[in-house]
Amino acid sequence: MWFYHSFASPTFKKLFAEFKAKYPTAELVTFDAYPYAAGLDAAQEVFGQRALPVYDLNGSELVVSFQADFLGDYNASSLETSYAAARKPGPNMLRHIQVESNMSLTSANADSRYRLKPSAVNKTLVEVYNAIVGGGTTDKTATEIANELKAKGSKAVVFADGSKGAQVLAHLINQKLGSVAFTGKANFLKEFNGARYQEFLGWVNGGQVGVLVTNNVDPIYAHPKGEDFKKSLSKVPYVIAVADKKNEMYKAAKAVIPVANWLESWGDIEPQTGVYSLMQPTIQKIYKSRQIEESLLVWKTVRTMLPTTTTII
After folding, report:
1. Which burial class, exposed, middle or buried, applies to 277 when counting CB atoms under 10 A from its CB (0-12, 13-18, 19+)?
2. pTM for this structure?
């Protein structure tokens, strides 16, 4: 079992596919300390692809945000560049409405801010959806927002955060408006799948994992139920931590393989649709470490077979 963090590297995925061809029972599971699970689940339901949508506000004249701090780390990216370009004074200057419970970096820049309880924010979003997609609403705040959205049409966009349901509604509103802010591109930087992670825990607790290889992740520290995960590792005969520092996973492993720091590594990445980039090291390796890709190249050519229940996360 391979346990790793989101890593949008075509080369890494190709190497693991070749590794799996030799060890068919090997599985790859993603773990992220900040998973963006709700956004990924919503995107999969609405767009049929488990990848976060990419937005561009350059052609927009109205943005309505429900709890979404889109000038911060919302959607695994930031929109400050296109937001700043669209906010230049003029007849088509972007208008910004923020509906939220707590003050955020984004709301500090809003033209209009509705401060509501978390439950009221979600209710208002539902009412706006009803007004845009359904048969209407009697909610005053929702009516005001919906009228502005209808007036701007395709030049308006809605963002939402906090739950899968909220983000699904935002996507559906944008589809109804035909929002030009939606580029049709996908952001591949986040890959966590909650259902897949729970399936993996079931394998571990059921004694179905013979070898567990963790690649620079530490769920013992980062997951809310990290102690339970630590206890379940006793059911795995071989736990191998590929790590660049001494963390909780390092302490729990039966063997540790030092991995090169990202500043010492070569690589490639596909952050979003149609964008490819190469990575190169900025320093020489300080210690005798190697990249996970190098390890895969070695392991997929060794003659000795790993146990039949190998899982990599």
Report:
1. exposed
2. 0.89
